[in-house]
Structures are given as C-alpha cells and as structure tokens.
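User: Please predict the structure of the protein below. I'd like the answer in structure-token form so I can feed it into my own downstream comparison script.

Assistant: Understood. Taking the following sequence of 154 residues as input:
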Amino acid sequence: MKSQQAELLPQLFTEVLVPLGVFEEVTTKDDVASTQLPSISWIQTVEVNAIAPEVAAWDLGKGESQVLSLALKNSDCAAIVDDRAARRCGQALSINTIRTGGLLILAKRPELIPSISPGIQALRDAGLWLSDTLVNLLKTSSRRIAIATNFNLK
C-alpha cells in the first residue's frame, strides 16, 4: 500500500482477501496505507479464527500468521509476504507465497505496467529493502518467468 502497488492486485487476482489481523495492523498506523485501506472496495476482509499450529510454531507476527494460516487452509490462495521468516515458513509448509516485488513481475507479464523499474523504486521509497542483486533478478525475471502456479490470476 505504501509503495502504491496495491492497484495491481485486483488486476491480477480474482479475489483479494485481507485477514482482519492485517487490516488492524495497517489501519492503526499513521501513514498513507492506514487511510487508504478502509476505503478500498475490492478487498474482502476475512476473520481468521485460529492460527494453524504449524504456522504458530514459527512465532511470526499476527498479520503474517493469519495470512499464512489462511493460505494453508485454502490451497488456491497465495500469500503475499515480504518478511523473511514468513517466507521461510511458507516455503517449509508448501504455501504458495509471493513477494511484493513478484507482483511487479506478474503485472509485467500481461503488460499491466510498461516497466518494473518505477515499481521497484516505489518499493524502495516506501522503505522495503531490496538488494541490488534482487533488483537485477526481478528485472531479468520479468522477461523470462513462467507462471506455473494456481494463484487465481485473472
């Protein structure tokens, strides 16, 4: 949200589910995302009543735990997580995960965006640390990635 990449989500996915824990984390801060999220019509907030025990074992934050538990329960969901520990948890539990930078690659494929460079800069400007190696990988991958998952892409 802070990086202004959120508008890509409804163009890429058939549904965008936001666990209430994530909604609460975002809307209690004092930033752009906290004021924008409540007014976005295309998100669907969902209550995650219980954290899956295998996710809870990783001792992640509330939002990450809810996102991963939701994706674990619903195999046709992908979890968008940037936190390193959350990504490792997702990988260990065979949860489809994607990073915010990966959204740029997905958006570049159907040409929703002409270039991923401005998006990468927006992520950096929003405070997301991206190594130069990762940036180069994202730029290269945007030209040769094959989507072979069931992320319910539009």
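That's the full token string. The first helix runs from residue 9 to 12.
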